[in-house]
UniProtKB/TrEMBL annotation:
Keyword annotations from UniProtKB, A to Z: Signal
InterPro entries on file: DUF3078
UniProt cross-references to Pfam families, sorted A to Z: DUF3078 (PF11276)
Protein's UniProt name: DUF3078 domain-containing protein
Organism name: Candidatus Coprenecus stercoravium
Signal peptide positions on this chain: 1-23
Amino acid sequence: MNRIIFGAGMLVLLTVYCTAAQAADRKKGDGDITYKEIKEISIDNTSLDEAQNVCVDVVSSIDEAAVDTAEKKAPPKYWTNGILTQVGFSQVSLTNWAEGGSANVSLNALIDANANYAKDKMIWENRLKLSYGFIQSFDKNTPLNQQFDKSDDRIYLDSKWGWQLVDKLYFSALLNFRTQFSPTYEFVPNESTGMMDRNTLSNFMSPGYLSLGVGINYKPFNFLSLNLSPATGNMVVVTDPKLWKTYGNDKAVRAEFGAQFKMDINYSYKIFKVSSALTLFSNYLENPQNIQVYWDVDASLALTKILTLTLRTNLIWDENILIKDAAGVEAPRLQFKEIVSLGLTWTFGQYVKPE
């Protein structure tokens, strides 16, 4: 019975289409017509009975719904954001080991998050990097307060806003913030007590660096960004008075005003990617010839989907920072940190990978 009804319905539809097509040819000439036009023609055609008109109504409503669906487009997405996490872990255990050594546990972790906005001529790029690493020794001959040592500790926030002036050239405003999570110590022998004294080298917001500048940003390629900010204000914050001299301060906050140049490279090829951020700053207010240099490089090789070999380096040259040598003489010195780790990597959301 169902097959008979279906066949009859198809015959009715075919009859309607042929009748309306003939009327359309007489009315409009040769050419394609839609179900909507067929419906309009069928209304004026008194030769169609009520059943045929019902079939035309059904078919035309389906056609109109399909057109409406095709015309609907997904709303534009102006935000892209995501998170990358990396964790590297190692553990050493020794029992009756004749060659010596000490048991220890080490951990290095990195969180790299981004949130970027782009609409018309405006862009806003934000990146937050949090890294922390430590080595916990279990050597019985080492005092408890010296068994824990940090290998990495960093809070880094970078935000760049831009308005396109011409192709690849933007008016820009750049904000940057850097500090660390926890205190870093050194242990020096005390001749009078025969013990080791613990001295603080740095701490959260000791130092803390905040900079804000306006200028021009040039992007000749997707992987390269050159930013020149001739009007940049810096604040060097040292909340611990004992560390003021170490970081060139005579009070808790030291203000600087000068020019800043920043070059960012983000490049990838198959399983290899590298990112580099080089920042140069000259202080107009004091010794402008002394250029402050901050250069961070991250390179990684994806061995599997989640296993990654990573190299991270940080280089600093700042004549305001005084560092003791082996003889205890304080002077500006080149600072360099290098971390190689083999660990697990996960990405969430729309993490922006290098181009």
